[in-house]
Amino acid sequence: RYLAFVWYKLPNETDYRCLNIELMQEGFCKAYSGGKTHYADQFDGAWKQAQRLGLRQYGTERDPGYDYGENRPNITLKELRLNIDDYVDKAIRTEGIVTKVFGNNVIIQDYDGEDDRYYAIEIFCGYSLSALGWEMLVPGNRVSMAGTLTFKEAFGYTLNDITYLATRPNYDKNMRLVSEGNEVVYIPVDGAIMNNATEAKLLQQVLVRAEELHVDYINVTESVTDSNGAMSIHVTDKNGQHFVVRTSALYENDNITLITKDRYEGETITVIGTIEEYNDSYQIHVYTASDIEF
After folding, report:
1. Which stretches of the chain score pLDDT less than 50?
2. pTM (two decimals)
3. Contacts for 215-224 with beta carbons within 8 Å, 24 or more apart?
């Protein structure tokens, strides 16, 4: 991780400003290592001024954009999915059964009897969720999650800012374990569903299974990021429908050796994953090699 000073200049001004110092001066952050920098005195002065004036985290005035966990609506995944743009950048609580855990993310989904279908959402748990919090996030566990819904072009819709404080069991923002050992259900899909934008959109992030897919050709991502080695597997189902299965970088059981496209080229496979949108079409995202069967 690289840390740096951010300098910027407002229109019609000649002098640059240091954003790091301004954030501290306004009480948005604390000083951790300012004393080791060239601007130690300025950082120290800005920090003490914010404390003296009682700004932001040093005072009683509330930030209108911060989620304090109060008056948070408790909504179903169906309500969230069908009206998802209405909830972007809003604090909500919802619940569902964990179906997938990958990296710092999980997928939860829930069944709606009225529509006879499942709805799902991806949860980004960040890098500070406690170990006790992660212990709840086991496939089959039903959890209640409080967070803020966000939308980014690169990641789609995700619920963020997940918290679990074991010492504050009644904290409104806490993740809660509702039940354990629930069945993890996947929905059978085929090319007709994947190529039907209306149907596939409703199934976004729902766990699905597609069988008897012939691998036509494979494109492999070459990158310096975690996506290096990820594959776009172009397949045809038994009814002649074409679509894409997108994998994360897949590894052998040693979690070191990267699996290459030679493993799947020309084969007939069955995959388990979640549906996601990419470039105005829908694909199945496969997270691990064990989710591809021959």
Report:
1. none
2. 0.78
3. 215/264, 215/265, 215/266, 215/267, 215/268, 215/269, 216/242, 217/265, 218/261, 218/264, 218/265, 220/260, 220/261
